[in-house]
């Protein structure tokens, strides 16, 4: 539900928009929460009951705040196949897209159908995760199986972490290293520009 009435465009700031898919830094999120000049809160109130606020809010905060202006990488880091011009929706990603997805170096993808075999393939080959298992890492020192059902005879089990480890111990896998390479290429190829905040709505 959103308002249909038009509202006066603010004079104090400019409205910017873009993709709702983003990765935000800790410093920026702290500013959005604490907002020493109260701008993030004012904007939140302004966008109340508007359509698609996620496509406006963070972009507008970034581009109206000198500390964060033009610090963006213009990429969603997602593999999306838009080969469906008649519907305007991305294709559902299947096993047939797997090799292209991996070759793209994208960190994320959309859209997937629930329980599609391609998800299992990603779990096994990219995340090194077994069926109903957890992603391995130093964050978990012990693993065990637990029934999702109250019926002990049920085969519907998932793996849980029985002994917590160090959640701050992060060692990138080969795909984590590929992500770092992708980000470096985006920066090198000029996807971080001083003109990012010139295209307002």
TrEMBL record:
Tell me if Glycoprotein is a UniProt keyword of this record.
yes
Major location category of this protein: membrane
* MF GO annotations: glucuronosyltransferase activity
Record's keyword terms, sorted:
Glycoprotein, Glycosyltransferase, Membrane, Transferase
Q: Is Chloroplast set as a keyword in this record?
A: no
Compartments it resides in: Membrane
Q: Which InterPro entries match?
A: GLCAT14A/B/C, Glyco_trans_14
Q: Name one GO cellular component term.
A: membrane
Reading the lineage from the top rank, the first entry is Eukaryota
Tell me how this protein sits in the membrane.
Single-pass type II membrane protein
The name this protein goes by in its record: Uncharacterized protein
């Amino acid at each position: 539900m959103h308002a249909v009435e038009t509202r006066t465009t603010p004079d104090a700031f400019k409205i910017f928009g873009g993709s709702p898919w983003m990765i935000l830094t800790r410093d920026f999120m702290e500013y959005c929460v604490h907002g020493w000049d109260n701008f993030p809160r004012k904007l939140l109130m302004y966008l109340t009951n508007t359509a698609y606020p996620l496509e406006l809010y963070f972009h507008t905060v970034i581009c109206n705040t000198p500390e964060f202006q033009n610090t963006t990488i213009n990429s969603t880091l997602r593999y999306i196949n838009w080969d469906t011009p008649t519907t305007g929706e991305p294709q559902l990603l299947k096993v047939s897209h797997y090799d292209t997805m991996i070759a793209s170096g994208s960190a994320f993808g959309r859209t997937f159908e629930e329980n599609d075999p391609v998800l299992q393939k990603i779990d096994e080959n990219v995340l090194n995760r077994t069926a109903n298992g957890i992603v391995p890492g130093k964050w978990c020192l012990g693993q065990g199986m637990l029934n999702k059902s109250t019926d002990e005879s049920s085969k519907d089990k998932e793996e849980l972490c029985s002994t917590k480890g160090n959640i701050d111990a992060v060692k990138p896998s080969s795909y984590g290293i590929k992500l770092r390479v992708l980000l470096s290429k985006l920066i090198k190829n000029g996807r971080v520009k001083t003109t990012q905040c010139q295209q307002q709505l």
